[in-house]
Amino acid sequence: MSTAPRIVIIGAGIVGANLADELAQRGATNTLVLEQGPLETPGGSTSHAPGLVFSTNPSKSMTAFAQQTIEKYTHLRGPDGTGSYLAVGGLELATSPERLQDLHRRAGWNRSWGVEAQVVDTDECRRLFPMVDPEPVLGGLWTPGDGLALALKGTRLVIERARRAGVEFRDRTTVTGIDTSGGRVRAVLVGEECIPADIVVSCAGFWGPRIGEMAGVDVPLLPLGHQFAITSPVPSLRGRNELPKGASAPILRHQDRDLYFREWGDRIGIGSYAHRPMPVALDDLPQYRAEEITDEAMPSSLPFTPEDFAAEWEESQRLLPELRQTSVDRAFNGVFSFTPDGGSLVGESAGVDGFFMAEAVWVTHSVGISRALAEVITTGTSETDLSGLDLNRFEKNQTTRAYVDETSQQNFVEIYDILHPRQPRVSPRDLRLSPFHRRQVELGAFFLEAHSWERPHWYEANAPLLDELPPEWAAPPRDDWSAQFHSPVAACEAWRTRTAVAMYDMTALTRFSVTGPGAADLLDRLTTSSMRRRPGAVSYTLLLDRAGGITSDITVAILGENDYQVGANGSIDLAYLAREARHQSQEDPAKWVEVRDITPGTCCIGLWGPLAGEVAARLTDEDLGAEALGYFRTRSVTLAGIPVTAMRLSYVGEFGWELYTSADLGERLWDAIFAAGQEYGIVAAGREAFESLRLEKGFRSFGTDMTTEHEPVQAGIGFAVKASKSADFVGKDALAARAAAATTRLTCLTFDEPTSIALGLEPVFLPGSGTAAGYVTSAAYGYTLGRAIAYAWLPDDLTVGDGVEVEYLGTRYAATVSEEPLYDPAMDRIRP
Ligand code: FFO
User: Fold this and answer.
1) pLDDT value at position 1?
2) Is 553 a catalytic residue?
3) 320 lines ligand 1 (CB under 6 A)
4) How far apart are CA 88 and CA 157, in angstroms?
5) Alpha-carbon distance 393 to 415, whole Å?
6) How much is the pLDDT for 2?
7) Ligand 1: does its nearest atom lie under 6 Å from the Cβ of 691?
8) Which of 102, 254, 256, 260 is catalytic?
9) Structure ipTM
10) Spans of the chain, pLDDT less than 50
C-alpha cells in the first residue's frame, strides 16, 4: 500500500483538475478528485467562463500565473492536434484621457514583469479590431500574448493526463462533511461514506464557503452574477472562425463602460460589469441532477435579466456598429467568485492542518495558481510568491459575512475603474480605531487604511508649518497622478522628525506575545537569529521558507523569561507562528508555547527625533538616554504614570523609541507626550513622511520590497541572518546555494531630476534598452536629501553611479544607482 499522503481534491473545475495534474507531475498520484457534477461539464464557473486570459496585473505573481496558463494551454493538445489556447492577443481601449494615461501605467506593469505590451494609437486599434468604431477611441493597450483559453477542453485534457498518471476522479459525488477532529483533516464524508484523507484541497470555486463551513474555516468569498450575452451571427464574421466558439480577433476590453468582447464563432460574446452587483445565495441556485447539466443549463448559470443589460447593449452597438444588425441570441447571468480585496484565496488554513484551498481563481491564473499550490503541497514552498493570495491575509473582522458581502460587491463595481494605488475604499471604514483616533481627528488627520486600521497619512494641523519650512526641505510640485492622496504637509512632518521630534501612531503594526517554556525554542527554530539571549534584547530577524526565501522580517523583543514580543507584518505571520506553536506544544508538552495577537489590546507611539530624549525626560525620572537603554534594547518604564514598554529602535532612522502600552491608557499617553513635546516643536506625523524617511534610511518593507522570491543577501538584509547562530532554523540549509544562484539585487536609485517621482511597480531600463531590466518596488521623495528615491530589483552587476531609466506613465526618467543608505550611513543619528 502506498504511504504517500492521501490527497482529496474537492471540485474538478479548471483549478481542481489542474491541481491534480500538477500534483501528479510532481509524483503525488495518491489523489482522489471529487466532483458533484458530471466531469465533462461540472457546472461551476469553469463551465461558463468566457475564457479570457490577460496578463496585465499590478502583481508580479498574478502576471506569472497568467503566463503559465498561456504556456500550458498552448501545449495541451487534443486528439485532433489543436491546442487549448487561442493566441488572439488582447486590446484594451481608452475613450477618455484618464484611461489613456492609465493604459501607459498598465503597459508599465507588463514591462516590469517581462510581458510584451504597448500603447497603440486609434488607427492601430482599428487595424487590430476592424469592427470598432474609431470615433470615441483615443488609443489602446495591445498585449499580443493574451488570448482565450478553451477552459473546458483544456480541463478535460488535464483530467485525462492526470488519470493516466494514476489520479482517480469521481464525479456526481457531493461532499457532505469533513472530519477535522484534533485540529486536522482526517476524512471527507460523502453521505454515509467516509473517505480518509491527509490533505483536503477545496477547489470548489464559489461553493467554497460551503466546503469551508464543513471544515470550520471561514472563506471570505461572495458569489456574484455577471452578465454575458452572445449575439446572433455577425455578417462580416461569417466563415471566419472554424470552431463554434473560435475567435481570431483580439479579446477586447472597453473599461470606460465596464464591458469586454470576444469573438464567439461568427458571433460576438459580450461580458458586462456595468450592472448592479447581484449577490447569490448558494441555497437559491437552480438545482440540477448531474444528468440534466448541459452547456446551457447548469447551476452557475442564472436567468438573464435584460433590464440590467439595456444600456450596455446600446453601448456595445455604438462601439461595434455592426452589432446593430444583430440581436442578443443567448444570454445568462453567470455566477463567479469575488473576495474582499479581489484576490484569490490560496493556501492552508490557519486552524485546520491539512485543509487547503484554491478558490476565487480566474481562468487566467488557474494553471499558475494550481502549480504553485502543488509545489506548496509537495515541497512546502512555491517558486512564485503566493503571499498576496494567502487565505490567511485577512484580519478576523475582514472575514465576517457583512464585511465580505460589502467589500466583494464593491470590488465588482470597481473592477475596471482606474484606482490610484493609495486610493482608500469609501466603505466600510472606521473599523479599527487606535486609542489616539480622537486626537488625530482633532488634528485634521487624513486617514488611509491598513489591515482595516485607520492610519493618519498627514495632519492638516501641521499645514501652518509650510510657512516655516526651510526651502531646501520643500519638494517640487507633483504631476496630477502622483499628487493624489498626497499632501505637501508631509514635508513639514519629515522636517520636524529629522530636526526636532515627532510622534507616530504605530498601532497598526501587528504584534504577538509569544510565551511559555517553549517560546525560545519556537523562535529559535523559525528565525535567523539566536533567541537564547537575556531579557532586554531586541532582534531584527527573518522568517524564511524551506527554500531560503523571505516570508517576513520581524522584530523580536525579549521582555522576560519565556516572554517575547514579536513585531510582525500581518496575519499571515500570525497563522504561521500559531500553527508552529500548536505543533510544538502537541509534540512536546514540556515545550508548550502560546502565540497571542496582542495588537487590538495594545497601542504604540513611535517617539523619534533628535529632541525625543528631552521630551521623555519631562515624563519620567528614569534614564532613557542612549547609554541607559541602548540601540535595539527594551525596558519597562513609567511615563507620566503610565506603564510603558520602550523599545529603542526606529524605522524612520532617528533616536527614540517605540512606546507600547495597553489600549485603555493610550489616549493618556498620547496627551502626555504631545503636551510635553510642545516646547520642543513636536508634531504628530503621518505615514507619508514615515515612508519617505524609511526609504532614506534604506529600511525594507516586506511584501513591497521583498517577497518569498528573494533571499536575504540579495534583498540587502543578509546581516539579519546571524552567522554565529549554530542552531538549525527553517531555511538555513538552502541559504548558501540560493544566494549563490541569485542574479538580481534590491538596488537604491535616486532620480537625476528632483521632480521625477514614481509610485512603485514602474519598469526600469538600462539606457537605450527596450526590455526592462527590473522594476521599482518602493519610491518616495526624500525631503532630507532633496532627491526622489526609488528602490528597484535590478541585475546585481550594476554598480554605484550607473545610469538607468525609470518609465513612469509612458515617459522615461533618468536615475542613478546610489550608495545606500542615503541617510545617516554612519548611524550617528539613530545610535548617538
Ligand atoms: N517591528 C517593530 N517593532 N517595528 C517595526 O517598525 C517593524 N517593521 C517590520 C515588522 N516588524 C516591526 C520590520 N521591519 C528595521 C528595519 C526593518 C524593520 C524593522 C526594523 C531596522 O531597524 N533595521 C536596522 C537593524 C539593525 C540591527 O539589526 O541591529 C538596520 O537595518 O540598521 C516595520 O515595518
Assistant:
1) 45
2) yes
3) no
4) 21
5) 21
6) 53
7) no
8) 260
9) 0.98
10) 1
